Amino acid sequence: MKVSYVMSKKVASVTPGTTLVTVGRIMSKKKISCVIVEGKNKVLGIISERDIVRRLAANGGELSGIKASQAMSSPVETLYSDTTLDRAVQLMTEKGYRRFPILNRSEKLIGVVTQSDVLRAFVREMEIAHEKMKDLAIRDHLTGMYNRRLFMTTLEKEFYRSKRYKTPMTIIMIDIDDFKKINDKHGHHHGDRILQSVGDIIRRQTRDADVAARYGGEEFIVLTNRADTGHAERLAERLRSSIAESGITVSCGVAHYPNDKSRFPDDLIRLSDEALYAAKRSGKNKVVSWSENMMEKENGTR
User: Fold this and answer.
1) Which of 45, 62, 82, 253 would bridge 74 by S-S if both were Cys, CB 3.0 to 4.6 A apart?
2) How much of the chain is in helix, strand and coil states, percent to nearest 5?
3) Separation CA 47–CA 35 (nearest Å)
4) How far apart are CA 38 and CA 109, in angstroms?
5) What SS3 class is residue 7?
6) pLDDT tens, 83-141?
7) Other residues' Cβ atoms within 10 Å of the Cβ of residue 113
8) What does pLDDT average to over the chain?
9) pLDDT digit string, tens, across residues 193-227
10) Closest to 248 in 3D by CA, of 207, 208, 297, 190
11) Is the pTM of this model over 0.90?
């Protein structure tokens, strides 16, 4: 990172002959903590609030007659705008500098960077890195979708919330048909591209309120809450047909809550899985919703 990204552009310069009273007025008006002293287009020194306070103490509270050249810290080191932040920190540490005037390559004063500016920049970088690490921990590395761990954590919260407030929720389990054959025939790189493509379609078709994740292998899962049965089944059919347009087929198992068979979150997963395999057994590329009748029919055909 360059110092130009963190420097303050609110900078003022004065000549060596400017009075400290005038310097103080400039700092107060512009709400800045320091002023750069320049002479013949060259940075000669810096006057900070601390410098002014020291002069006040040394002169019994009087500033009249004192020039900028008498109060400035000098010599002063300048940095170019393309200097790295690491280099600025190194100089601050080695030489005890608290601030640097920043010049462009035409030697024109364009800003000032302070220890506080540098600290804020590093804190912000650490916050960004932390947020990235948190996001990586809940994402599937291949598809960029939420991972199974995040999904299960969310499912548990939503399940008991749905149970308490008697609101509907649905799980849609999605499995790519004949994925092993695809991998065996075209290779794993091709299979990875299919997984990414299916993941993209699922993300585009689901609402922000839905939670879509890669459940594992070629399986995906969607949690849709506060939506009726009809909405969830239409969503499952829309997902199936949209994926089919890409040349890949999937089977979908849908399980709604509330139902008499789901006392715990895992029960809802199990029912959606049963519905999924019913779709597989009935020819694939289908959406099947779990029901008692579905199970009776399944048992009757065995």
Assistant:
1) 45
2) 50, 25, 30
3) 5
4) 9
5) coil
6) 998 898 898 888 888 889 999 999 999 999 988 888 888 888 899 889 888 888 999 99
7) 24
8) 91
9) 999 999 999 999 999 999 999 999 999 999 998 88
10) 190
11) no
Antiparallel, parallel or unpaired: β 13-14 and 34-39: parallel
Domain covering 3-123 assigned CATH 3.90.950.10 in the classification: no
Q: Residue 95's closest CA among 81, 112, 115, 80?
A: 115
Domain boundaries, the chain: 3-123, 148-300
Question: Which among 152, 150, 148, 172 has a CA at the least distance from the CA of 257?
Answer: 172
Laid out side by side, the sheet with 169-176 consists of 211-216, 219-225, 169-176, 250-257, 287-289
Backbone angles phi, psi at 112, to 5 degrees: -145, 140
What is the CATH architecture assignment of 148-300? Answer: 2-Layer Sandwich (3.30)
In this structure, which amino acid lies at residue 200? D
Joined together, the tokens standing for residue 280 give 């597989």
Quote the longest CA-to-CA distance of the chain: 105
Containing 165, the helix (H) or strand (E) segment is helix 148-165
Which residue in 170, 171, 178 sits closest to 280, CA to CA?
Answer: 178
| The pLDDT of residue 296 | 62
The neighbouring-strand residues paired with 174 are 220, 252
Residue whose structure tokens are 């309120």: 209
DSSP class of residue 79 equals E
Q: Is the alpha carbon torsion for 186, 188, 192, 195 positive or negative?
A: positive
**Helix H or strand E segment including 20:** helix 20-30
The whole-number average pLDDT for the span 19-25 is: 92
Query: Which residues are designated catalytic?
Result: 218
